[in-house]
Design a protein that fits this description.
Elements lengths: L2 H11 L4 H8 L3 H9 L6 H11 L9 H7 L13 H13 L3 H11 L5 H8 L3 H26 L2
Protein backbone atom coordinates (compact mmCIF):
# COMPACT_ATOMS: atom_id res chain seq x y z
CA UNK A 1 0.00 0.00 0.00
CA UNK A 2 1.34 3.42 -0.94
CA UNK A 3 1.85 6.20 1.59
CA UNK A 4 -1.13 8.18 0.29
CA UNK A 5 -3.42 5.17 0.65
CA UNK A 6 -2.17 4.61 4.19
CA UNK A 7 -2.89 8.24 5.11
CA UNK A 8 -6.38 8.02 3.58
CA UNK A 9 -7.13 4.71 5.32
CA UNK A 10 -5.94 5.99 8.72
CA UNK A 11 -7.88 9.25 8.28
CA UNK A 12 -11.05 7.37 7.36
CA UNK A 13 -10.58 4.96 10.28
CA UNK A 14 -10.22 7.98 12.58
CA UNK A 15 -13.52 9.31 11.24
CA UNK A 16 -12.00 12.54 9.91
CA UNK A 17 -12.57 14.38 6.67
CA UNK A 18 -9.63 15.74 4.70
CA UNK A 19 -10.56 19.21 5.94
CA UNK A 20 -10.60 18.10 9.58
CA UNK A 21 -7.16 16.50 9.22
CA UNK A 22 -5.89 19.62 7.46
CA UNK A 23 -7.19 21.78 10.31
CA UNK A 24 -5.41 19.61 12.90
CA UNK A 25 -2.14 19.94 10.97
CA UNK A 26 -2.55 23.62 10.03
CA UNK A 27 -2.25 22.81 6.32
CA UNK A 28 -4.66 23.10 3.41
CA UNK A 29 -7.18 20.42 2.51
CA UNK A 30 -5.61 20.56 -0.96
CA UNK A 31 -2.27 19.40 0.49
CA UNK A 32 -3.94 16.51 2.35
CA UNK A 33 -5.61 15.54 -0.93
CA UNK A 34 -2.26 15.60 -2.74
CA UNK A 35 -0.71 13.36 -0.07
CA UNK A 36 -3.56 10.89 -0.37
CA UNK A 37 -3.38 10.87 -4.18
CA UNK A 38 0.37 10.30 -4.06
CA UNK A 39 1.09 13.61 -5.80
CA UNK A 40 3.07 14.91 -2.83
CA UNK A 41 5.01 13.00 -0.20
CA UNK A 42 5.23 14.21 3.40
CA UNK A 43 8.69 14.35 4.96
CA UNK A 44 9.33 12.33 8.09
CA UNK A 45 8.53 15.16 10.50
CA UNK A 46 5.21 15.80 8.75
CA UNK A 47 4.45 12.07 8.67
CA UNK A 48 4.99 12.00 12.44
CA UNK A 49 2.53 14.89 12.84
CA UNK A 50 -0.01 13.14 10.60
CA UNK A 51 0.30 9.93 12.62
CA UNK A 52 -0.10 11.84 15.87
CA UNK A 53 -3.19 13.66 14.57
CA UNK A 54 -4.68 10.30 13.55
CA UNK A 55 -3.60 8.52 16.76
CA UNK A 56 -1.65 5.84 14.89
CA UNK A 57 2.01 4.81 15.02
CA UNK A 58 4.16 6.69 12.51
CA UNK A 59 5.30 3.41 10.93
CA UNK A 60 1.70 2.74 9.90
CA UNK A 61 1.93 5.82 7.66
CA UNK A 62 5.57 5.68 6.56
CA UNK A 63 8.68 4.00 7.85
CA UNK A 64 11.73 6.10 8.61
CA UNK A 65 13.68 4.13 5.98
CA UNK A 66 11.01 4.63 3.34
CA UNK A 67 10.96 8.36 3.95
CA UNK A 68 14.70 8.92 4.12
CA UNK A 69 15.55 6.74 1.11
CA UNK A 70 12.74 8.39 -0.83
CA UNK A 71 14.81 11.55 -0.59
CA UNK A 72 17.64 9.87 -2.55
CA UNK A 73 15.79 7.83 -5.16
CA UNK A 74 15.60 10.68 -7.67
CA UNK A 75 19.40 10.94 -7.82
CA UNK A 76 19.94 7.84 -9.90
CA UNK A 77 19.93 8.85 -13.57
CA UNK A 78 16.87 7.59 -15.47
CA UNK A 79 17.53 4.48 -17.51
CA UNK A 80 20.52 3.59 -15.35
CA UNK A 81 20.75 0.20 -13.75
CA UNK A 82 23.08 0.20 -10.79
CA UNK A 83 23.65 -2.73 -8.50
CA UNK A 84 23.53 -2.01 -4.79
CA UNK A 85 27.25 -2.77 -4.64
CA UNK A 86 28.06 -0.29 -7.42
CA UNK A 87 25.86 2.42 -5.93
CA UNK A 88 27.41 1.88 -2.50
CA UNK A 89 30.91 2.11 -3.99
CA UNK A 90 30.05 5.34 -5.82
CA UNK A 91 28.55 6.91 -2.70
CA UNK A 92 31.57 5.88 -0.61
CA UNK A 93 33.98 7.37 -3.14
CA UNK A 94 31.89 10.55 -3.30
CA UNK A 95 31.85 10.90 0.51
CA UNK A 96 35.64 10.52 0.70
CA UNK A 97 35.85 13.65 -1.49
CA UNK A 98 33.66 15.71 0.90
CA UNK A 99 34.62 17.47 4.09
CA UNK A 100 34.37 15.49 7.31
CA UNK A 101 31.31 17.48 8.40
CA UNK A 102 29.53 16.98 5.06
CA UNK A 103 30.23 13.25 5.18
CA UNK A 104 29.15 12.97 8.83
CA UNK A 105 25.88 14.77 8.15
CA UNK A 106 25.15 12.59 5.11
CA UNK A 107 25.97 9.38 6.98
CA UNK A 108 23.93 10.47 9.99
CA UNK A 109 20.89 11.06 7.78
CA UNK A 110 21.06 8.27 5.23
CA UNK A 111 22.89 5.47 7.03
CA UNK A 112 21.99 6.07 10.67
CA UNK A 113 18.54 7.46 9.74
CA UNK A 114 18.78 10.33 12.21
CA UNK A 115 16.38 13.26 12.16
CA UNK A 116 17.51 16.77 11.28
CA UNK A 117 17.20 17.79 14.93
CA UNK A 118 19.40 14.88 16.08
CA UNK A 119 22.05 15.78 13.52
CA UNK A 120 21.87 19.48 14.43
CA UNK A 121 22.43 18.70 18.12
CA UNK A 122 25.35 16.39 17.36
CA UNK A 123 27.06 19.01 15.21
CA UNK A 124 26.18 22.10 17.25
CA UNK A 125 24.23 23.80 14.48
CA UNK A 126 20.65 24.69 13.67
CA UNK A 127 18.27 22.39 11.82
CA UNK A 128 18.08 24.80 8.87
CA UNK A 129 21.85 24.79 8.57
CA UNK A 130 21.84 20.98 8.56
CA UNK A 131 19.11 20.93 5.90
CA UNK A 132 21.02 23.42 3.76
CA UNK A 133 24.33 21.56 3.99
CA UNK A 134 22.66 18.22 3.36
CA UNK A 135 20.74 19.63 0.40
CA UNK A 136 23.97 20.87 -1.19
CA UNK A 137 25.70 17.54 -0.59
CA UNK A 138 22.78 15.60 -2.07
CA UNK A 139 22.74 17.87 -5.12
CA UNK A 140 26.48 17.28 -5.61
CA UNK A 141 25.92 13.54 -5.21
CA UNK A 142 23.30 13.62 -7.96
CA UNK A 143 25.73 15.41 -10.28
CA UNK A 144 28.48 12.96 -9.35
CA UNK A 145 26.29 9.91 -10.04
CA UNK A 146 25.19 11.32 -13.39
CA UNK A 147 28.79 11.97 -14.42
CA UNK A 148 30.00 8.56 -13.27
CA UNK A 149 27.15 6.74 -15.03
CA UNK A 150 27.82 8.66 -18.25
CA UNK A 151 31.55 7.81 -17.99
CA UNK A 152 30.74 4.15 -17.43
CA UNK A 153 28.32 4.06 -20.38
CA UNK A 154 25.32 3.21 -18.16
Amino acid sequence: MEIGSRIAAARTAAGLTQQELADKLFVSRHLVSKWEQGLRRPDLKTAELIASALSVPCDSIISREECVFGELQGLIPKGTELTVERLSALISRFLRQRTETESDIFISRYYLLQSFSQIAMAHGMGENQVRSRLSKTVKRLGEYLKEECENDGH
